[in-house]
Write a structure and sequence with these properties.
Blueprint lengths: L30 E9 L5 E9 L9 E11 L6 H7 L1 E2 L3 E5 L3 H13 L11 E5 L14 H10 L17 E2 L2 E2 L2 E10 L2 E12 L13 H4 L17 E8 L5 H18 L8 E13 L19 H21 L3 E2 L5 E2 L4 H8 L2
Parallel strand pairs: 5-6, 11-12
Antiparallel strand pairs: 1-2, 2-5, 3-4, 3-12, 7-8, 9-10, 10-11, 13-14
Helix pairs in contact: 2-3, 5-6
C-alpha cells in the first residue's frame, strides 16, 4: 500500500474538526520548509533541517507571543531562556538532528546579520532529536547552508511529512517516523480559531503505541515487523511546535504547549528519563516589534477560562501529527545496514477497525 496520511486511510482522532489542510500551515502566515540530506558516500547521511516560519517570513520584524514547556529535558531547544523571560518569538524555529544544532544556529544568525532588521538581537530557536541510529552523526553533514535552503523553501500549503527535513533519520515506537502535522478548529469567546501542530517524532517503545486508545503496537509485534534497534536502546525524543491564530498572551501559549504532552501520552509516549520532550507554542493573534520602545502597545487576548477547546485542539492535533509522521514515513536503510521499517498501513486499518 502507498504511504498516506491517517485520514486518507479512513481513520480519525478526536472530536474537533480539522482545518482545510490538516496542517500547521492552516494558520495564516505560517510557512514550513525542509532541506533533506540523503547520501551514502563518503558518509551515510540521513538527516536534514525543518523550519517553521510565521508572519510570512516577517517574524524577524513582527514578533509574536510564545511559551514553552519541557516534559522531560534530555534534549535541547536553544533560546528558551529568552522565551521564559520575554515571551516573544523573534525569528523562525528550526528542528534538526542533535549534532547539527550548532550549524543550524549559525545559519539562522548569519541570515539575520545579512538583513536590515530594526531588531538585530538574535537568540535563535533550534530544537533537536537524535538521528544517530540511521545517520552517521559524526559526519556533521548539516551545515548553515542547509538551514538557508530550508528557509528559502519555506512555503504555505500542504506540508511534506515522514522522511523529510529534520525528520529524515527519525524513528518512533520502533517504526520509521519523522515529521508530521495536523490541525483543529476550536471555539472560544464566541469565535472560531485554528490550532496547528508540527512534530518531529523520534521516541517510544513498540508496545506503548496507541491509536485513539487502541493498542496498535501490541498488535504488530517485532516478530511481524522487526524493530530498528535492540531492546536495550534508550528512548529518543519528540519536539512539538504549536501555532494558533487565537490571540493569546505568553502564559496562555505556555498552557497550550503543556497540553502537547497529553497528545504524546495518548499516542503512547511516557516522557521517559532518556527522552527530550520539548514543546513550543506561539500565537499570531498579536504582532509587534520589540524594538519599538516609544509607545504603549495594545494586545488582544482570550479569557483564561475560555481556552478549553483550544487545549483539546492541541491534544488531538499532537496525537494525529505523530500518526501522520508514522503513516507518511517510508522504510529506510541507514548506516551499518540498519533498517527502520514503516508501519504497515493495511495492518493499521485492520487493527483500528476491530
Amino acid at each position: 500500500m502507498n504511504r498516506a496520511r491517517l485520514r486518507d486511510l479512513g481513520l480519525t482522532i478526536g472530536h474537533l474538526p480539522a482545518g482545510p489542510l490538516n496542517a500547521i500551515t492552516d494558520i495564516p502566515g505560517v510557512l514550513v520548509g525542509h532541506e533533506t540530506i540523503i547520501s551514502d558516500a563518503p558518509d551515510v547521511v540521513r538527516s536534514g533541517v525543518t523550519v517553521i516560519v510565521p508572519e510570512e517570513g516577517k517574524v524577524w520584524q513582527r514578533h509574536l507571543f510564545a511559551g514553552a514547556h519541557v516534559l522531560n529535558g534530555t534534549g535541547e531547544m536553544t533560546g528558551l531562556s529568552w522565551i521564559e523571560e520575554f515571551g516573544l518569538m523573534c525569528g523562525p524555529l528550526a528542528i534538526t538532528g542533535t549534532h547539527s544544532v550548532g550549524a543550524v544556529h549559525e545559519g539562522l544568525v548569519s541570515y539575520e546579520l545579512k538583513q536590515d532588521f530594526e531588531f538585530d538581537f538574535c537568540l535563535p530557536l533550534v530544537a533537536e532529536t537524535d538521528d544517530s541510529w540511521l545517520n552517521d552523526a559524526r559526519a556533521l553533514a548539516v551545515r548553515p547552508s542547509h538551514l538557508l535552503a530550508a528557509l528559502k523553501a519555506a512555503a504555505p500549503g500542504p506540508v511534506p511529512e515522514g522522511n523529510v527535513g529534520g525528520g529524515t533519520g527519525m524513528n518512533a515506537h520502533e517504526f520509521k517516523a519523522g515529521i508530521g502535522t495536523a490541525s483543529r478548529r476550536a471555539a472560544a469567546a464566541g469565535e472560531t480559531w485554528t490550532v496547528g501542530v508540527l512534530v518531529q517524532a523520534n521516541y517510544g517503545r513498540r508496545h506503548q503505541l496507541r491509536l485513539d486508545g487502541k493498542p496498535v503496537g501490541e498488535a504488530i509485534p517485532t516478530t511481524e515487523v522487526p524493530s530498528p534497534w535492540p531492546q536495550t536502546r534508550d528512548e529518543g525524543s519528540i519536539i512539538a511546535v504549536i501555532a494558533t491564530d487565537a490571540p493569546l498572551l505568553p502564559h496562555q501559549c505556555k498552557r497550550l504547549a503543556q497540553r502537547a504532552g497529553l497528545g504524546v501520552g495518548r499516542a503512547g509516549g511516557i516522557g521517559a528519563p532518556s527522552s527530550g520532550d520539548i514543546f513550543f507554542a506561539f500565537s499570531t493573534g498579536n504582532a509587534h516589534s520589540a524594538a519599538d520602545e516609544s509607545r504603549v502597545h495594545a494586545a488582544r487576548f482570550l479569557p483564561d477560562f475560555a481556552l478549553a477547546d483550544l487545549l483539546q485542539a492541541v491534544i488531538e492535533a499532537t496525537e494525529e501529527s505523530i500518526w501522520n509522521a508514522l503513516c507518511a514515513a517510508e522504510t529506510m536503510t541507514g548506516q551499518h545496514g540498519r533498517v527502520s521499517h514503516a508501519i504497515p498501513l493495511d495492518r493499521l486499518q485492520d487493527i483500528a477497525k476491530t
